[in-house]
């Protein structure tokens, strides 16, 4: 969630800091201290300068600045460089982060909400915040920490949480499925586009998902009209003089209505699928 805040927050912070400075930073530190003193320390604790929230597992950099472990780890992953967001100090290798070793309180896990994915390593099944395409696992905040502390794990590709993680990865190349081949009607990875599907009509998963949603809406409207037509026929038959033997058409129409309503429910559920890749995959494998 905090990723979208990086550009605004980091740019705002850097305006008050000399970008060319390097630690030890006497002038920069004095500037930051003056900036921090503008807050009412007694009424509000210091917050992480990346997420602008209370510290979660504080991690100190060699230059002395402190951030949430997840915030600085994600910042480095996106930036692809080990740099302090505040003083711009650049580290040639991934520095060993000094973290608060105080045991974190383990609150009782609340039941997962609709759409949440459980952490693969939590006995209490806390909600996952990231999925790793290399480990093929989803992690909560606590179990994601090694991916931000270890240089090897730091190279892994982290994505927004997905339910069926195995379905998000190309079985042939082990890369993320991020494109759609219209020629073969298949979800493919970047390697597939350069090899097996080279020269085919390839579009993004997002664009294909938008097309599928449009088709789903049209089909849903068509099913709803069919339901209304049959309901009208049932009402007409009920208001006519019928013998017991003539009530068979009503039973048949009611069965058709029930089938159409079930199909419409499936279409509505499919249209509400948030993950674009999952929506396209479900559409391809669902007879609607």
UniProtKB/TrEMBL annotation:
<keyword id="KW-0479">Metal-binding</keyword>
<dbReference type="InterPro" id="IPR017907">
    <property type="entry name" value="Znf_RING_CS"/>
</dbReference>
<feature type="domain" description="RING-type">
    <location>
        <begin position="48"/>
        <end position="88"/>
    </location>
</feature>
<dbReference type="Pfam" id="PF00643">
    <property type="entry name" value="zf-B_box"/>
</dbReference>
<dbReference type="InterPro" id="IPR051051">
    <property type="entry name" value="E3_ubiq-ligase_TRIM/RNF"/>
</dbReference>
<keyword id="KW-0863">Zinc-finger</keyword>
<dbReference type="InterPro" id="IPR027370">
    <property type="entry name" value="Znf-RING_euk"/>
</dbReference>
<dbReference type="Pfam" id="PF13445">
    <property type="entry name" value="zf-RING_UBOX"/>
</dbReference>
<feature type="domain" description="B box-type">
    <location>
        <begin position="165"/>
        <end position="205"/>
    </location>
</feature>
<dbReference type="InterPro" id="IPR001841">
    <property type="entry name" value="Znf_RING"/>
</dbReference>
<dbReference type="InterPro" id="IPR000315">
    <property type="entry name" value="Znf_B-box"/>
</dbReference>
<protein>
    <submittedName>
        <fullName>Tripartite motif-containing protein 47-like</fullName>
    </submittedName>
</protein>
<feature type="coiled-coil region">
    <location>
        <begin position="250"/>
        <end position="277"/>
    </location>
</feature>
<dbReference type="GO" id="GO:0008270">
    <property type="term" value="F:zinc ion binding"/>
</dbReference>
<dbReference type="InterPro" id="IPR013083">
    <property type="entry name" value="Znf_RING/FYVE/PHD"/>
</dbReference>
<keyword id="KW-0175">Coiled coil</keyword>
<keyword id="KW-0862">Zinc</keyword>
